[in-house]
Write a structure and sequence with these properties.
- The protein has about 325 residues and is mainly α.
- Helices cover about 75% and strands about 5% of the residues.
- It has one domain.
- It has 15 helices and three strands.
- The chain has a three-stranded antiparallel sheet with strand order 1-2-3.
- Strand 1 and strand 2 form a beta hairpin.
- Helix 1 packs parallel to helix 13, helix 5 packs antiparallel against helix 13 and helix 7 runs antiparallel to helix 14.
- The longest helix has 29 residues.
- The two termini are about 35 Å apart.
- About 50% of the residues are buried.
- This is Multidrug resistance efflux transporter family protein.
- Pfam families: EmrE (PF13536).
- InterPro entries: EmrE.
Length: about 325
């Protein structure tokens, strides 16, 4: 229950991303600056937090053990997650981006077979690969139908190109975020806490953010003061607070594929918080009946998914298959 409550709190702070990114996009801000500034501002904040806890040496030691894996999975988990979300903000309302983002619940289950664990059996040590939790996937279909309903309501209002630009990047991000996060959890094996892991992934993904920032500076100049200040808000509330909370929740659930699915399902709360924020802060925001029905289905699917997952006992046969011995 503690991990679920932390996950819901994280979803509130994550909602800041969708609303503020839309505000920046509507004001003419570049999505490249929106993406890069968040992590550039996160860096000094996280450095101070980790140093204050006296855990920076452990992080540096861990990163030196597998430097290229840190760079790659941070690029996947942070780069291929956040840059597409910022790009989509220029083509879709914040509530639709947040709603489509909930596909990550399904994506999180689909990437399970990419992970394996070592088990000691009477026959010796074997390496097993996890299986997709099919029972939880049944409830995920409700979420999928809800997302389809939202996207259909939007597709009738905008050109096809805008619809695709606002949808495909988000779907890429839904796979990248749980994959990168879980791969880093697997790599660290519990040796780092949420603050350390967030800082490490921010540092390891810096090459991408610096390249984007340099390119945008040469192409269109520096960001406006307003976009810079809004990026600070996103960095603090979503980049630091929400990410650390979410990583803390996933750390509490690690080792149990069903509990991990519950934690990831709490992020559907972003839909509610984002819709409320957009209605309050962005003039002209509207949602059709079809879009509202889709949102309701996503939220219902999240609740049912969580209830089913929390009541399901995991077993070795359900979670893993042998891949080597």
């Amino acid at each position: 229950m503690k991990a679920i409550l932390i996950g819901i709190l994280a979803s509130f702070f994550f909602a800041v991303t969708f609303v503020v990114n839309k505000l920046m996009s509507d004001a003419g801000g570049s999505w490249l600056w929106s993406a890069s500034l968040r992590y550039l501002f996160m860096l000094p904040i996280l450095l101070i937090l980790v140093a204050a806890r006296g855990r920076q040496r452990t992080l540096w030691s861990e990163m030196r053990r597998h430097p290229w894996q840190w760079v790659w999975w941070s690029f996947v988990g942070f780069g291929l997650f956040y840059a597409p979300l910022c790009f989509s903000a220029a083509y879709s309302p914040a509530w639709l981006v947040a709603g489509t983002w909930q596909f990550t619940i399904i994506a999180g289950s689909l990437v399970v077979p990419l992970f394996r664990e070592t088990r000691l059996t009477p026959q010796g040590v074997i390496h097993v690969r996890r299986r997709i939790p099919m029972k939880g996937m049944g409830m995920s279909l409700i979420i999928l139908v809800g997302i389809a309903a939202m996207e259909w309501s939007q597709s009738t209002r905008v050109p096809l190109s805008s619809f695709l630009f606002g949808t495909i990047p988000i779907l890429l991000a839904t796979f990248a975020y749980p994959l990168g996060n879980r791969k880093m959890m697997e790599l660290c094996e519990g040796r780092l806490d949420a603050y350390q892991r967030t800082l490490g992934m921010t540092i390891a993904s810096l090459p991408l953010w610096l390249i984007l920032a340099i390119y945008e500076t040469c192409a269109h100049g520096l960001p406006s003061v307003n976009q810079t200040l809004q990026s600070v808000v996103v960095a603090v509330f979503s980049g630091v607070i929400a990410t650390v909370l979410f990583f803390t929740a996933t750390d509490l659930a690690k080792g149990n594929v069903h509990q991990l699915a519950v934690v990831e399902a709490t992020q559907s709360g972003e839909v509610v918080f984002t819709l409320i924020g957009e209605l309050l802060l962005i003039p002209g925001t509207s949602i059709s009946v079809g879009g509202f029905v889709g949102l309701a289905m996503v939220i219902l699917g999240m609740i049912l998914h969580s209830l089913l997952s929390s009541r399901t006992k995991s077993s070795p046969h359900d979670e893993a298959i042998e891949v080597s011995s």
